[in-house]
């Protein structure tokens, strides 16, 4: 009686080679997708040049503004839930959280909730003029030497003295 050991055919060998090649490629693709999605969820920073005034309105979002030796406004957003977001800029102003009609003469704040809002962190030129209104979010302002008008109804307000600069 002859005893044969079956080792497979060429198709099986090619399948193993494909699997050995494809699995690392799929893992790499998955890592790229996760990193890009995480970056979007955490909020990738955006920059705005020539901004002299910053106006932020939110119902529930936290707002942090830090004055630094920069020439542009950098913002990082962190959406919670569907996190509604409205931003407009031009003529030296960046406005966050106000919805205006086509003429710009009638504006109102967007409405967000505790479960669905956007938190903002800004790095701004030290001498910028800042206005922040938040109903329930925490507001922090540090290192800004320009005019600051920051208010929150039920959140915490932290406003540090400007850093010497």
In short:
With 165 residues, this protein is an alpha/beta fold. The chain is built from 1 helix and 13 strands; from the N terminus they run αβββββββββββββ.
Give structural attributes.
five-stranded mixed β-sheet, six-stranded mixed β-sheet, 165 residues, alpha/beta
Describe it for me?
- By secondary structure, this protein is an alpha/beta fold.
- The chain has 1 helix and 13 strands.
- A 6-stranded mixed beta sheet has the order 1-4-9-3-11-13. The protein has a 5-stranded mixed beta sheet with strand order 5-6-2-10-12, with no helix packed on it. Strands 7-8 form a two-stranded antiparallel ribbon.
- Strand 7 (98-100) and strand 8 form a beta hairpin.
- The longest helix is centred in the first third of the chain and has 33 residues, at 10-42.
- The protein starts with 9 loop residues before the first helix and ends in a 6-residue tail after the last strand.
């Amino acid at each position: 009686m002859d005893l044969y050991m079956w080792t497979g055919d060429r198709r099986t060998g090619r399948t193993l080679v494909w699997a050995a090649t494809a699995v690392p490629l799929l893992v790499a693709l998955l890592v790229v997708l996760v990193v890009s999605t995480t970056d979007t969820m955490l909020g990738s920073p955006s920059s705005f040049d020539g901004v002299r005034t910053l106006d932020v309105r939110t119902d529930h979002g936290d707002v942090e503004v830090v004055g630094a030796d920069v020439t542009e406004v950098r913002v990082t957003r962190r959406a919670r839930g569907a996190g509604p977001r409205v931003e407009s800029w031009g003529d030296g102003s960046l406005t966050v959280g106000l919805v205006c009609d086509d003429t710009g003469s009638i504006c109102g704040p967007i409405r967000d909730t505790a479960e669905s809002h956007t938190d903002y962190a800004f790095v701004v030129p030290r001498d910028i003029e800042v206005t922040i209104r938040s109903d329930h979010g925490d507001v922090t302002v540090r290192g800004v030497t320009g005019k600051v008008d920051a208010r929150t109804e039920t959140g915490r307000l932290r406003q540090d003295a400007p850093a010497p600069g």
